[in-house]
């Protein structure tokens, strides 16, 4: 069983406005969807976070991990809209991306749904808190 | 020693299951080698010249007899009967089959071991002072801090695809036995107003552009440690270069933006992340620290030793170090016997060291960054027995920190990155200086060999460093002088044109002869070099 479509972990409907570039977003005040390239500063979005419904973060190659920090920065600033990882998004990176706050994925290549489910279910415990609701091991130990 | 609870065990078990799944997908062709590579690397599995190499993590270089025996058993059952202890206090198996790796990891997990993050562009195994808990000069045992960092960094969701690998060392003594200043982050524990905290150094490293780290924060308490490290890493992950892997380490970022700008960015980030509740409560550090409580030392243990056997006396003088507990000593087991491969041990030797650790060192062993083994807590009355057993196994070479105690990378005999063979050169140098009196007369002399510019053999930090390069298809060796990975940290300077394998051995001898001529009483080689400078040595080498 193979899926190449958009993978979403949200209950709302997918946002249908196309994402604009960061430059375009900063230059036009009414856009509600933006695409961040790997080297672009997520903090530039913070003043207008409230109007955004979709932020798409580009992964030009799975080795480029800047998008993980971009996601954390946006979630820590209180962004609750859709946060989409797009590009070279592979099944083995996806659980880490979920922890950093991504809740939507547009992978270039299909992701095997069974492998993905195993991967997402595998770890019952995590050492560190992140942008998800996981309770870190130290909190389980000490309450 | 740290003991896993159900959470630690569940995480390591899940990792075995995950890697088994990844290996199956690779073997069935679902994963390309390009996609599999970062996954296997995150688990310490390299493809070398002849086979897969598996690097097993030995957190802060500490292990018990049961764990050591498991390494011996894996060497016997899945490798060619030996293992190689590394400069990161880990162990490598050089002849591993991909299909066996999930089973090997499952066996390691039964003794609370793993290969998590022993390679890849992530936070690597945390290293520490090999004499932790035993050294007379430490303010505290650094290992509880290292264990906190190990847990925080394990599968860190944000920092698993960094620009490049990331190495952290923790020490707690003025003497730096872990090359702390040559790490991406080095932490030195200090006491201030009765509280323990860490001085945070960032941006050190060896490789092709060696740099000594900068002091970024002079004191961080345990209450803020994770938040501070999170800030340090986030600035690196966001701004570290990704356009050129040779410029991707954090040292280059610090070099390009300067330590002051980096510090400002980190402090700004720290203020923000400190609000997120990333720091475990003090009770977690207390829980870990309790597991590193000193063993049940006998008070008033006898400290007199019969030194009438001259061979034993030499070993005592060279390989045995003062312990903080009267009547006890720290024993260094040299893995640099004449003619041997630096850092290698056979399965039988590994088992024997495990036995000795169990019987005579409160069930503890350490791996050092100089690729030797330490029995940290040996009663002085047992030293003779330990020495006798080591001698019978070829493990009592009395050469700690002498010219034949060579650090060498695996080199072109194993490594696909290497330009030159390190091991045969180490053996030739050890042969040239085989005379024990001569070695001892030359005194502390740290000689380090790397088979390529990546500097795994720490040649930049060698009192004498050697770098193997490829010169038009022929191995060529560059000599450098004056480096140190210790508290008097410095980077070695290249002497000039390189040499053939035999030529560099001759050149080293001219260097040591010059030292003997010029030294003043009590001076180590490094002291003389620093006093008289580079020129007399250069003149002697190139005449």
TrEMBL record, chain A:
It comes from the Bacteria. InterPro entries: UCP030820. This is DUF934 domain-containing protein.
TrEMBL record, chain B:
It holds the Pfam family NIR_SIR. Residues 119-270, 403-541 form the Nitrite/sulphite reductase 4Fe-4S domain. Its cofactor is siroheme; [4Fe-4S] cluster. Residues 52-109, 341-392 form the Nitrite/Sulfite reductase ferredoxin-like domain. Signal peptide: none annotated. GO terms for biological process: sulfate assimilation. GO terms for molecular function: 4 iron, 4 sulfur cluster binding; heme binding; metal ion binding; sulfite reductase (ferredoxin) activity; sulfite reductase activity. It comes from the Bacteria. Keywords: 4Fe-4S, Iron, Iron-sulfur, Metal-binding, Oxidoreductase. GO terms for cellular component: sulfite reductase complex (NADPH). This is Nitrite/sulfite reductase.
């Amino acid at each position: 069983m193979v899926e190449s479509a958009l993978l979403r972990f949200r209950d709302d409907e997918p946002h249908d406005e196309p994402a604009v570039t960061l430059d375009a977003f900063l230059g036009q005040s009414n856009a509600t969807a933006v695409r961040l390239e790997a080297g672009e500063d997520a903090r530039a979005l913070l003043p207008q976070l409230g109007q955004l419904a979709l932020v798409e973060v580009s992964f030009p190659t799975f080795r480029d991990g800047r998008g993980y920090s971009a996601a954390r920065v946006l979630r820590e600033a209180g962004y609750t809209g859709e946060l989409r990882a797009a590009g070279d998004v592979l099944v083995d990176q996806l659980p880490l991306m979920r922890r950093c706050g991504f809740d939507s994925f547009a992978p270039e290549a299909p992701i095997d749904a069974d492998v993905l489910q195993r991967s997402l279910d595998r770890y019952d415990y995590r050492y560190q808190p992140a942008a998800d609701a996981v309770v870190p091991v130290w909190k389980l130990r000490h309450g | 020693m740290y003991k896993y609870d159900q959470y630690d065990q569940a995480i390591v078990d899940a990792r075995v299951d995950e890697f088994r799944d990844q290996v199956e997908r690779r073997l069935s062709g679902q994963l390309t080698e390009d996609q599999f590579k970062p996954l296997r690397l995150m688990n310490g599995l390299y493809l070398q010249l002849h086979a897969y190499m598996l690097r097993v993590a030995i957190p802060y270089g500490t292990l018990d007899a049961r764990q050591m025996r498991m390494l011996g058993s894996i060497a016997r059952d899945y490798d060619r009967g030996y293992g190689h202890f590394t400069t990161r206090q880990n162990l490598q198996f050089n002849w591993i089959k991909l299909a066996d790796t999930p089973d090997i990891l499952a066996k390691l997990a039964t003794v609370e071991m793993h290969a998590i993050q022993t390679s890849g562009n992530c936070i690597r195994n945390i290293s520490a002072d090999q004499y932790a808990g035993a050294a007379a000069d430490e303010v505290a045992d650094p290992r509880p801090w290292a264990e906190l960092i190990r847990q925080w960094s394990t599968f860190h969701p944000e920092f698993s695809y960094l620009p490049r690998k990331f190495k952290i060392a923790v020490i707690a003594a003025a003497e730096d036995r872990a090359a702390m200043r040559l790490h991406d982050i080095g932490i030195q524990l200090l006491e201030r107003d009765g509280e323990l905290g860490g001085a945070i150094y960032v941006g050190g490293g060896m490789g092709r552009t060696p740099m000594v780290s900068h002091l970024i924060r002079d004191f961080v308490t345990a209450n803020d440690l994770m938040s501070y490290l999170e800030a340090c890493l986030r600035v690196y992950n966001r701004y570290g270069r990704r356009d050129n892997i040779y410029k991707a380490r954090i040292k280059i970022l610090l070099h390009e933006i300067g330590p002051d700008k980096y510090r400002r960015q980190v402090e700004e980030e720290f203020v923000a992340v400190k609000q997120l509740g990333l720091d475990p409560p003090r009770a977690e550090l207390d829980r870990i620290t309790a597991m590193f409580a000193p063993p049940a030392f006998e008070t008033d243990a006898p400290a007199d030793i019969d030194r009438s056997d001259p061979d034993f006396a030499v070993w005592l003088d060279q390989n045995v170090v003062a312990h903080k507990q009267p009547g006890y000593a720290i024993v260094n087991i040299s893995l640099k016997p004449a003619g041997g491969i630096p850092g290698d041990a056979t399965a039988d030797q590994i088992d024997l060291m495990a036995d000795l650790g169990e019987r005579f060192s409160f069930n503890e062993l350490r791996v050092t960054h100089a690729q030797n083994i330490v029995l940290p807590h040996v009663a002085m009355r047992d030293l003779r027995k330990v020495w006798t057993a080591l001698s019978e196994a070829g493990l009592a070479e009395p050469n700690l920190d002498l010219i034949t105690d060579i650090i060498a990378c695996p080199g072109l005999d194993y490594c696909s990155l290497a330009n030159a063979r390190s091991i045969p050169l180490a053996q030739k140098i050890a042969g040239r200086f085989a005379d024990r009196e001569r070695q001892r007369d030359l005194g502390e002399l740290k000689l380090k060999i790397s088979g390529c510019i990546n500097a795994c053999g720490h040649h930049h930090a060698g009192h004498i460093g050697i770098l193997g390069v490829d010169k038009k298809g022929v191995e060529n060796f560059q000599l450098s002088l004056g480096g140190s990975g210790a508290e008097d940290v410095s980077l070695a300077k290249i002497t000039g044109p390189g040499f053939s394998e035999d030529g560099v051995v001759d050149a080293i001898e001219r260097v040591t002869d010059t030292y003997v001529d010029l030294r003043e009483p009590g001076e180590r080689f490094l002291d003389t070099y620093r006093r008289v400078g580079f020129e007399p040595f250069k003149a002697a080498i190139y005449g």
